[in-house]
What does this fold into?
Amino acid sequence: MVVWPDGRSLGTVGGGQFEQKVVEAATEALAAGGPRRYSVHLTRDLGMCCGGAMDVFIEPLRPVDRLLLFGAGHVARPTALFAREAGWAVTVIDDRDELLTEARFPNCERVEREPRAYARNLAGDPRGWVFLVTHDHQLDQDLLELLLAHEWAWIGLIGSRTKVAKFRVRLRAAGITEAQLARVSGPVGLDIGAETPEEIAIAVLAEMVRTRRGVQRPPGLLRLP
It folds into this structure.
């Protein structure tokens, strides 16, 4: 049986009071985001005359998260690979066709377009993830200003603390609010001492997984006073 968050269902596990309890347990599991087992004795717990006991395994099914990867450089390549393996659908946006190849980004959607032009047409997505890792600091800043006009599941910005601090000053001057800045993770990635592009990609993906699983994380530099 499939159960939606609003209680609608398709299929059956036998009907009656037992099925009603299963639907309730399924909606709770969807809200909590984790699997659970519902076990009940039909006579003792539900007062049903048929007797016996039943067990139901409930597993929430998550829609596929989408990662918009702005930039196709050294860090973007392993990030796209690892994100795909972890269950994200990846779209890579860059106007450099020599980097945006199937060999470098297998099983990813590749958009050969000027990144600002692409970002201007985006409407936001509560299940959409954004990682800014372009080759140009001004481009990163322009993209951030455009993207913060909409809601996203997560926005990550690569760069040093100095770069991110300067972005904060400039974006505030451009009218970006503190609430908007608080939605940006920067410098992005868990502090694991990463140096190589592959290590940096692991640090970034580790933060993404932690965010997706709802684990509390300390604020990034953009959220510091």
Summary: The longest helix spans residues 16-32.
